[in-house]
Design goal:
The protein is 39% helix and 29% strand. Strand 20 and strand 21 form a beta hairpin. Helix 1 packs antiparallel against helix 3, helix 3 packs antiparallel against helix 4 and helix 7 runs antiparallel to helix 8. The N terminus is likely disordered.
Length: 579
């Protein structure tokens, strides 16, 4: 019989190992592409820096070109006594989609001793020359942008590689999943994988927050001081960009304006930028700004080449919440993991050896005699967590709903088909989002429910002994209709199967200590807490727990009912207490 079980478990484990290997190999492609991009960009940094003179630097704007904005550049430099002419701004890239990127470079190069130059001619600079081919030169290097992008791409792939490795290790360890970890001699390898995964989650969220969201938030704040300026539209169109998941669209509004006596140009439309699916709304914007029409833009007075048409993020502002779940999972997971390990090394004995210091991970510490403690967990923590998660989930889902609506309202047949299919696909996610919003609202209302504190009598809790328990109301609104205090004994067992685990709970003892419908008795009172003579002492092992709880139940009209609890530590009696 044991051979069959081992064989079946082995088959399940090897299938997980095989899937993990395939997953890891596929994810490694992203790592390779990212590292290759970083290596390629680093190679351009090896170019020699040579003095040069810029004869011309203008910006060509042609909506028929890809990209539409390209530098019209000529510079001269000398290598080994021979003069060369260069026309490239970057080693590889020809142009940009955002006029502001080139305008900023031109403004930096055109700063003379008395202010900005009208024309960049005869300006001294420094160019990058290929030492193997002096005719191969560019005015600028590749910059950090591509290096950072390649590094992020490699880290993104590395995150999924670690998931694949976790599946591989989980598959190998799956052959022994019927043996508790405490009997296998620890889980150092899997623990290391868990730590690395949490670190990757945290760093990914921190990188998105610091590299994308925080700069946008700072820019949005600074835009409050930008000046309204009249402008004239040069061209307006909807740009379609092809992608692996279909086409995306963006508003391309190119305009000119005057500021402090100089003419500037820009094609920046909003704060966020980028493109998204659904073209109907964007075409409506473009129809409102035909070439030659007037519009109002907001100009940065410190850097007048920077301007924007729409400075408010609108619903896109919810995208700023995107990194929060990653950081919460990553850094919160690290805190939980090390906290659990620290406590797991010390709570795998009966609580009698540790008195009231033992506790279950994620639960309040057991009640201590002589001290007033609150009953139940933190309502604010539950409300804040669920609210952030609901905002994040519904914010992301709103983009899909909006795109589905744009597809349905698009005049093309494919747009209607796409929009209808996406709408049907989004239904379950919308339902989940509504449920999360309702849950956040429920937690908010629960903040106003009555709150209670309790205090145990002095002395150790051992089987066969009684101590007084006091309670008092500590805040909240509403008057409970009824009030019940119970002593509950509960057994909990955690079972592992491969990389998954589940916890079974069974109540083996439940006794009402006090119940009333009298309001005065609910606000404060006293009852006798009698531990049964045959009670099993509290026990906190890695996979099995015996918990004793004081549970408070109350029905509150118009507010969520109370179902709070607090653990108590029932110790093993010593020789004197046994006699």
């Amino acid at each position: 019989m044991s051979l069959k079980i081992t064989d079946a478990s082995g088959r399940r484990s090897w299938s997980l190992v095989l899937f993990g290997i395939v997953w890891t190999a596929f994810s490694s492609i992203f790592v390779g592409v990212g590292l290759s991009s970083v290596g390629k960009e680093f190679s351009t940094w090896k170019r020699d820096r040579v003095p040069c003179l810029i004869d011309r630097f203008e910006i060509r704007a042609d909506q028929g070109s890809k990209p539409p904005f390209q530098p019209d550049l000529v510079f001269r430099y000398v290598v080994d006594g021979r003069e060369y002419t260069g026309t490239r701004l970057w080693p590889e890239k020809k142009g940009v989609d955002d006029y502001e990127d080139l305008a900023e470079i031109r403004e930096e190069l055109g700063q003379g001793p008395e202010g900005p130059l009208e024309r960049i001619q005869g300006v001294a600079a420094e160019c990058r020359v290929n030492p193997a081919d002096p005719a191969d030169a560019s005015l600028l290097g590749s910059g950090m942008g591509q290096v950072v992008f390649g590094g992020i791409f490699a880290l993104f792939g590395g995150f999924f590689v670690l998931i694949g490795l976790a599946m591989v290790f989980g598959g190998f360890s799956g052959k022994q999943t019927r043996t508790p970890r405490s009997e296998k001699g620890g889980d150092g390898a899997s623990g290391c994988v868990v730590v690395v995964l949490f670190v990757m989650f945290g760093l990914a969220g921190l990188g998105m927050f610091g590299g994308l969201m925080l700069p946008k938030a700072i820019e949005w704040v600074s835009m409050r001081g930008w000046q309204e300026t009249p402008a004239t539209v040069i061209w307006s169109r909807v740009v379609e960009k092809d992608g692996d998941d279909g086409s995306t669209y963006a508003v391309d509004l190119f305009y000119r304006y005057n500021f402090d006596g100089r003419e500037y140009r820009s094609n920046r439309y909003d704060l966020i930028g980028g493109s998204s699916s659904g073209s109907a709304g964007k075409r409506e914007v473009v129809r409102g700004y035909p070439p030659g029409s007037a519009l109002t833009v907001f100009v940065d007075p410190e850097e007048p080449w920077r301007a924007v048409v729409q400075r408010n993020p609108g619903w896109w502002g919810l995208f700023f919440l995107f990194p929060l779940p990653f950081m919460s999972i990553g850094f919160g997971g690290l805190w939980w993991y090390f906290k659990k390990r620290r406590e797991g090394n010390s709570v795998s004995r009966p609580l009698a050896r540790r008195a009231a210091a033992a506790r279950v991970p994620g639960q309040p510490a057991p009640a201590v005699g002589g001290e007033w403690i609150k009953v139940g967990g933190s309502r604010w923590a539950a409300f804040i967590f669920l609210t952030i998660f609901a905002l994040f989930w519904n914010g992301i889902i709103s983009f899909g709903v909006r795109d589905a609506w744009s597809g349905l309202s698009d005049g093309s047949g494919m747009g209607r088909i796409f929009g209808g299919g996406l709408g049907l696909f989004m239904i379950p996610f919308v339902v989940i989002g509504i449920g999360l919003a309702c849950g956040a609202l429920y937690c908010f209302v629960a903040l106003f429910s009555p709150r209670y504190e309790m205090k145990l009598g002095e002395g150790r809790l051992v089987p066969g002994r009684s101590v007084p328990v006091h309670w008092r109301r500590a805040g909240g609104r509403g008057q409970p209709r009824d009030f019940t205090l119970l002593l509950v004994g509960r057994e909990e067992a955690t079972f592992s199967q491969g990389s998954s685990s589940s916890t079974a709970k069974s109540v083996f003892h439940e006794k009402v200590l006090f119940e009333t419908t009298v309001p005065q008795a609910m606000d404060q009172g006293r009852a006798e807490l009698a531990i049964p003579a045959d009670a099993v002492p509290s026990f906190h092992g890695e996979h099995n727990r015996i918990r004793w709880l004081l549970c408070l139940r109350a029905t509150v009209p118009g507010l969520p009912d109370l179902k709070d609890e607090r653990e108590i530590a029932v110790a093993t009696p010593n020789r004197e207490e046994s006699t």
